[in-house]
Write a structure and sequence with these properties.
With 179 residues, this protein is an alpha+beta fold. It has seven helices and four strands; from the N terminus they run E-E-E-E-H-H-H-H-H-H-H. The termini are far apart.
Length: 179
């Protein structure tokens, strides 16, 4: 690649080295500052807490959750939510003391609403995947390069928060009342 007669000899998106004859110039991009995000802060807290598994909160034991799952015709996320339901009480307790709880959960709801509008012909598993991926991007952009969250920890924390939002009727549709 040419740049004012100089030849690019190396580049890794943050550093470029240009040279012309016996002159070498190194250009360094300014490091990005992490963005701030409530979901990142909460994920970090969840990762540090390392919640103990509690089988008491299985989805199959809650008729309201089961009805909501059936009504929204989710398959993949039924299994995912069941896998991460063990920390429901811990997440509830953690978020009760979190001053930005409403903003955090409202963001989950807004992302779900966005997915419904952007993908009206897709099923709810697809929409929840989109919400999950959107939350992963937010967390990754807020992560500090020197102290990132492991991907597995990030995923678990996001799934736990999505399940919590599901139990609070902030993602997916409520089934109509019977009678």
């Amino acid at each position: 690649m040419k740049n004012n007669g100089a030849q690019v000899t190396a580049s890794d998106q943050s550093v470029a080295i240009y040279g012309k004859k016996n002159t070498v110039n190194q250009i360094m991009a300014r490091p990005r500052e992490p963005k701030r995000a409530f979901v990142f802060d909460v994920c970090k807290i969840i990762v540090e807490k390392n919640f103990e598994e509690n089988v008491e909160y299985s989805i199959s034991d809650n008729v309201n959750w089961t009805k909501k799952i059936e009504y929204n015709e989710i398959v993949k996320y039924e299994m995912i939510f069941d896998e991460y339901s063990f920390a429901r009480e811990d997440i509830e307790e953690l978020l009760n003391g979190y001053e930005n709880r409403t903003k955090l959960i409202r963001n989950f709801k807004t992302l779900y609403i966005d997915s419904v509008c952007k993908y009206p012909s897709e099923n709810n598993d697809f929409r929840l995947d989109w919400v999950f991926e959107s939350l992963c991007i937010i967390v990754d952009e807020a992560s500090e390069p020197t102290n990132p969250i492991y991907i597995e920890d990030r995923n678990q924390a996001i799934y736990q928060l999505m399940f919590y939002a599901f139990t609070k009727c902030q993602i997916l549709e409520k089934p109509p009342k019977e009678g």
